[in-house]
Amino acid sequence: MVLPKVPLTRARNSWVEYWLLNCTGYTNRRIADEIGTTDKTVEAKRQEMESTGEIRQLDRLEGKDGREKAS
To answer: What pTM was computed for the model?
Structure first.
């Protein structure tokens, strides 16, 4: 599912949070491509959520090609 690109707002931030909570094992790029944002935006939100304990830190993440990569 690819969403239209929209300015970084609470709505986009909510999408990033939603994907990180439900697809924690996906790489930042994979989530960014699905949402239509940058991997840096996803990375910043992931770091924030990991530091507060909302999501756990993972050693490996799944990329768009389905392969696991070191995080």
So the answer is: 0.74
